[in-house]
Amino acid sequence: MADAHSKEIDTISGVETTGHEWDGLKELNNPLPKWWLYIFYATVVWAIGYWVVYPSWPLISSYTSGVLGDSQRADALAAYDAGLENRAKTGEQLIDASLEDIRSTPELLEFAMASGQAAFGDNCAPCHGSGATGAIGYPNLQDDKWIWGGTLDDIHQTISYGIRNGNDEARFGDMPAFGRDGILDEEQVTQVANYVGSIAGLEAEDGVDLEAGKTVFIDNCASCHGEDGKGMQELGAPDLTGSNYLYGKSIEAIKNQVNNPRNGVMPAWAPRLEPSTVKSLAVYVHSLGGGQ
After folding, report:
1. Is 225 annotated among the ligand-binding residues?
2. Per residue in 198-232, pLDDT tens?
3. What parts of the chain have a pLDDT lower than 50?
4. Is 127 annotated as a binding residue?
């Protein structure tokens, strides 16, 4: 009765109070709208039904499976397994198809490009860069200067077996250490380095006899790089007349390479990756813009 007597009509809003008052503020008795209450009751009923029909309550080592036994996790795993199966089927098609067939078949090409890009990021980008533009000691794969050839077959061979890594099928080309091993003296190293620089467009050092350097080049270097310095891909001897110098394009860098050459090593990926992945890498690398 005390609560009933404490209720009153608010003079400003005209709404009955609940009888509760805090620091002079009286609580108005404004019930929730009927539509809101009905929606709330419906969500309660829906929740109860959901608990019964679908997996919901956690147990010690599992959970209630519900009347339907449905599971979004199971659906996701099934979709994942189906994707793997489909990928495996397409991968088998890549293994059986030639590189040219892959490039000319839209479905296989799309798969190879996606697979190759992912494999490149995981395995090749640490050396060649995420954009495949290379760095000092690591070739740029986006230009058309290929030491061992830039056709699809050439690239596939290089990726499969690598370079100077001990694999029986690896590419192998070894430049002698002309200075370190005493094949050439210091003056001859200077002469040939300046001559090589001159055919590559560099300015020779003062006082260096370029004709003598040419003679040294013909006698010691032309057998691999050719008398014109254009190189030989079958030997892995680079073109010395262009702009792409793997270890730096300067007279000093050329001297260092003649004296004590750095012969880079590339892993053989065929023993490490699936055959379909190796093919995908070859197709992807060839597509970067520098393929021949």
Report:
1. yes
2. 999 999 999 999 999 999 999 999 999 999 999 99
3. 1-2
4. yes
286 labelled binding-site residue: no
CATH ID of 125-287, from 1.20.1530.20, 1.20.1050.10, 3.40.190.170, 1.10.760.10: 1.10.760.10
5 is in an annotated binding site: no
Q: Which residues, including other chains, have CB under 8 Å from residue 7's CB and lie 6 or more apart?
A: 16, 17, 18, 19, 29
232 is in an annotated binding site: no
- pTM for the model stands at 0.71
20 carries a ligand binding annotation: no
Looking at the chain, which residues constitute the CATH 1.10.760.10 domain(s)?
125-287
128 is in an annotated binding site: yes
